[in-house]
Each structure stands twice: as structure tokens, then as C-alpha cells.
Amino acid sequence: MCPRGGRLLGGEGGPLAPAKLVAHCLLIEAGDGLVLVDTGLGTGDAADPGRLGAPFRAFIRPQCNLAETAVRQIEGLGRDPRDVRHILATHLDLDHAGGLGDFPDAEVHVFAPELAAAQAPPLRERERYVAAQWAHRPRWVPYEGGGDSWFGFDSVRLLEGLDAEIAMVPLVGHSAGHVGVAVETPEGWLLHCGDAYFHRGEMATPPSCPPGLRFFQALTQRDGAARRQNQERLRELARLHGDDVRLICSHDPHELARERSTAT
What we know:
Layout: H1 7-10, E1 26-30, E2 33-37, H2 43-47, H3 54-60, H4 70-76, E3 84-88, H5 94-97, E4 107-111, H6 112-119, E5 139-143, E6 148-150, E7 153-158, E8 166-170, E9 179-185, E10 188-192, H7 211-220, H8 224-241, E11 245-248, H9 253-262
Parallel strand pairs: 2-3, 3-4, 4-5, 10-11
Antiparallel strand pairs: 1-2, 6-7, 7-8, 8-9, 9-10
């Protein structure tokens, strides 16, 4: 995604230069199957960018490259996309749920308030959800609050039946039912924070964020107080447990590059 804004959005470049934002998805090997965290923009979006809506295309300027869709990248890894049996949605914004239709047989795990908001959005949020992205009628698996505890975060529901330790961590604020997804790896826990923050500087102490991104987060938030509170909790998690947990978000290209360089 290449919105114009340069330093205001990405922290570098001229004021009218295109910034670079990514849709950071996560593929997890779990036994003989695969688990996908978010799907980014999908083949349906590449075939018909118009379904993303004029405001999103004008401001965000998505580059709908078929080769960059999750399904094509999975094929490029030599894996069968039909092995993706579970999709964990941090939320259902159009830039996170566009590839759902590329995995029609997968169960889609989502926080119940998010599913409810996406299926019947209030007027001010109708642009963020695109019903065409789930016109294939996904196998929704909604989760209510309550469950286990993960590093002091309440209302965590652990997924069962997988030989991988995965937890959904509610981080509401950006949207009605936004969650993070925690995965245990040999190097410790990895928490995909979705859109709980947008820029790596927000997890530093003191935090920093390009002003354009800060404004965009405020513009698109469902509950500003909850979003800011969860950001502070994530900063505390990074301060206290940085050796055991590393954080990634959906849209920071530097974090994506870092994770790709260390992926095994």
C-alpha cells in the first residue's frame, strides 16, 4: 500500500512521496496443516480492485499484485493452500480479510464482537468492511471473551486441537473485536498485534509515531481510550518481557523485513 505522505506516514521521504505500508500476514506450520493469521488483500481484490471502494483506493493506493497475495506466496513456498485449515483474523477490515475467499474450506476464527460489527456495521464503519470478501460464506468460528491468561492479558482463548501453542488476545480499540495472535516459537512468543499499533516506534519508551499515522489511527479507531490503553499495555509487555516476547504489527514494512530475515 503506497499512500502519499512520505515522512508523515512512513517517517522518511518527501511530503508527497509514496510511503510504504504492508499487510503483514503470518503462516504457521501446525502438524500436517497450516494456520494463517490474516489474509491481506486477495486474488478477488486483484481481479476487481473496485470492490475496495473509491476512498480506500484513492488514499491508501493499494498495489493489487496477484503474486503478493497470501495464496500465491504459500504456493511459492511449495505448500498446498488447501492445507490452510484455520485462519485467525486479527479483525475483518478490508485490507486484512481480502484473501478469505482464497481459502474457502478453512475455518475462520474471529472475536464475536468483530464478526457482529462486520456483518452489520454502523454507518461510520461501512467503508472498512467489504462483504464481497466473504461472499463465499466462510466457516466462521466466533469466540466470546473469557478464557486463560497470557502474560497478564485477560480474556485469552487458546485454540485447541493443534500441536502449536496459539492464543487469541483481545486488543480492542482499533475495531470492535480486534485481537492479537500469540504463537509460541523455539525463540519465545511472537505476538502479531494486527492494527493495535502501526509503527515500531510506538512500542518504544517513550513512544513515537509519524504524525500522519497517528492521525490515521485516530481517524479509524472504534474506541480511542481502549486502543490507547492496549498500546500502553503492549509497551509494558515489551519492557518487562522483551526477552520472551517479540511484537509485530500489520503495516510496518521494517518489522516485516526483520521477521523475513530471521525466519526459519
